[in-house]
Amino acid sequence: MTAYLVTIFVFFLISLLLAQSFNLAFGLGRLFNLAHISSYAIGAYSAAILTLDYGQNPAAAVVLGAILSAALSLLVGGVSLRLSDDHFAVGTLAFSALICAILINWRSLTKGVLGISGIPRPIIWGVDAQSDAVFATGLSIIVLALLWAVRVIFSSSFGAALKAQGESPAALAAIGTSSAKIKMTALAAAAVLASVAGSAFAFFVGFIDPSSFNFAELSSALAIVILGGPGSFWGAIFGAVLIAVIPEALRFVDIPDSILGPGRQIIFAMVIFSVLLMRRGKAFRKLRRV
Amino acid sequence: MDAIGQLVINSLVSGSIYALASLGLALSYGFLRILNFAHGQLMMAGAYAFLFGFSALNLGIPGAGIFAAAASAILSWILLKAFVRPFADCTPIAAFVSTLSFGIILENLIAIVFGPNSRAIDLGYLPESVDLGIGRASYLEIIIFLTAIGLFAVLRIIESRTILGVSVRAAAEAGENAEALGVDSELLSGVIFILGGLAAALAGVFVGLENSIGPSMGASYTMKAFAAIVLGGLGSARGAIVGSLVLGFAENFAIGLDLGALSLPSGYRDAFSSGFVLLLLLVKPEGFLGRRGRAI
After folding, report:
1. N or C: where does chain A have the smaller number of CB atoms within 10 Å of the terminal CB?
2. Which residues face A153 on adjacent strands?
3. Interface contact B104-A276, CB threshold 8 A
């Protein structure tokens, strides 16, 4: 039972980090970046490939993955940020599909659909995270530190500017602030956080394949952010708790595995839709054009 | 030369399927300015409805066709009424997210009911093929091509010769003014959504007959349909058909042409449309559907 709870807790931490990073770009900045899941994938694959094939130490692998994710998010941003909302979503969706195709097809690097197995648990500063409890403790510290950083961003002047460009780009332009730079920074910061979450996932599970990083995986992050209210730091934490707990309740009902997976997805989608419907007047009201 | 001729035939067939698949997306964007992220799932569900009607209910081909049409019409209606309409006064993001969630629900329901694996729709006929001079095509492939051509001819006539076509254009161009003059845009959007859903379902059935269908096929077809309407340059049926043909040719030639070391591995087939979208957005960032009022 304790082992089960520790496992749940680790997945909770990972999904919280992923959701909070999505909350930064989408919730606060209204950047509906569907390629966000690609950063998570790059974090996971970097952790696996750099430690297994290139003998890098885990910490370096995580950092390199984060840098790579940030670089890619700048590419995504460079192409997509010039676009309107509609086209931004389509462009970033195209990016995520492309990354997914690369994960499946670049077999010499990613082992394709077979996935990469045997990713070792990291030993960082002499601490061996072989046991789940140690891993959970270590990850808690890292996630707490990163969440603190997110909290700082949320309440900083940068956070306010990010929120402002989402709500009224014209007003921001009027006071002479460039929204492009703000959006790029937000995308990169979100990518770094998502990448770390992905690395944690790879190290914890020890096995990754492209199916863990397709678009559907973003639905839990989306559910968490929408549930907590887009742009709300504490809301996302509350959402993450609910989204971690609800599907686990399914486990105690006698449902076969073949239904459990899709069932979870359906629950997430229903949560997203119903909360969206209830809050549509508040969180998503149409902006006044200036 | 033979290889090229065959590629041309294959491209026309894929292009026809993409045209049917993207019609609804083009129409709904042209008319409602809504990007429907569940369009591929609508197509997938239509194909499964046909499969269910044919193999499980033994309705025969016409019966299964009617069953699938009814199912897609109902699903399109639900999508419009519950997942698009309520967000008419919100930022576009709300409708993206809500149509996305509809797609996720549909995809996973189908996976639960029919299983996650791909399957072909088998009508019990062997696909006979004929020699067209430049290559071979099965009767099915000829039917697919003719259906696409026929449907767009019909749409063309609807657009220019009927009250429906004129109303759609009026509502798309003038919105509230057209409503004031008695155009029921609520009804029109229903007609447009259902029409698009039916075309998508037909495309799905064709994919099932030609290859196979699976619950997760939707996302890649949504992407292909986006690519087609991006390429087409307009949120219009005409743009969609041109874009679909270009995509069909580009995809088949990029994968099929033997360029030695430069050949694109066939695994990238579905990614091709994504790459295309990105390239186009890079070249033409102001967007693809520039003009309003070209709903058909």
Report:
1. N
2. none
3. no
Cα–Cα dist B211/B14, whole Å: 11
Which tokens sit at A99? 């990354």
* Gap between the Cα atoms of B210 and A142, Å rounded: 51
CB contact under 8 A, A94 and B270: no
pLDDT recorded at residue A207: 92
Whether residue B278 and residue A98 make contact (CB cut-off 8 A), yes or no, is yes
| pLDDT tens by residue, B155-176 | 888 877 777 777 777 777 666 6
Query: How far apart (Å, rounded) are the C-alpha atoms in residues B277 and B285?
Result: 11
* Residue A60 contacts B where some CB pair is shorter than 8 Å: no
Closest residue in A to B280 (Cα) is: A91
Q: What is the reported pLDDT for B296? A: 42
Residues 6+ apart with CB under 8 A from B295: B27, B30, B31, B168, B169, B171, B172, B192, B235, B236
Tokens of B71: 């199912």
What ipTM does the predicted assembly reach?
0.85
Report the largest interatomic distance among the alpha carbons of chain A, rounded to a whole angstrom: 59
Average pLDDT over residues A218-236: 90
A219 touches chain B (CB under 8 A): yes
Spell out the residues 6+ positions from residue A182 whose beta carbon is closer than 8 angstroms to its own: A29, A158, A161, A162, A165, A172
**Which residue among B93, B112, B274 sits closest to A94, beta carbon to beta carbon?**
B274
Q: Which residue of A has its CA nearest to B283?
A: A79
pLDDT per residue over B28-59, tens digit each? Answer: 887 777 888 999 999 999 999 999 999 999 88
Mean pLDDT, chain A, integer: 86
Q: Give the pair of three-digit tokens for residue B40.
A: 């591929």
Report field, pTM of the whole predicted structure over 0.95: no
Distance from CA of A31 to the nearest CA of B (A): 9
Q: Cβ contacts (< 8 Å) between A100 and chain B: which residues?
A: 271
Question: Do A266 and B108 contact (CB within 8 A), yes or no?
Answer: yes
The answer to whether B19 touches B256, Cβ cutoff 8 Å, is: no
Query: Rounded CA gap, B129 and B138, in Å?
Result: 4
Model pLDDT for residues B216-244, shown as the tens digit of each residue:
899 889 988 988 887 776 567 778 888 89
Please report how many Cα atoms fall inside a 13 Å half-sphere around the Cα of residue B280, on the Cβ side. 25
Residues 80-119 of A with CB under 8 A from B: 80, 82-87, 89-91, 93-95, 97-98, 100-102, 104-105
Q: Would you call A274 an interface residue with chain B, using a CB distance cutoff of 8 Å?
A: no
Contact list in B for residue A101 (CB cut-off 8 A) is: 267-268, 270-271, 274
Q: What value does the mean pLDDT take over residues B62-66?
A: 93
Residue B140 makes CB contacts below 8 A (sequence gap 6+) with B127, B206, B209, B210
> Is any Cβ of chain B less than 8 angstroms from the Cβ of A268?
yes
Judge whether A26 and A90 are in contact, CB under 8 Å: no
Whether residue B293 is predicted with pLDDT greater than 50 in this model: the reply is no
- Which runs of consecutive H residues, i.e. helices, occur in chain B? 2-32, 39-51, 60-78, 92-114, 139-161, 163-174, 176-180, 185-210, 218-232, 237-256, 269-283
Exposed / middle / buried, residue B87 (Cβ in 10 Å: 0-12, 13-18, 19+): buried
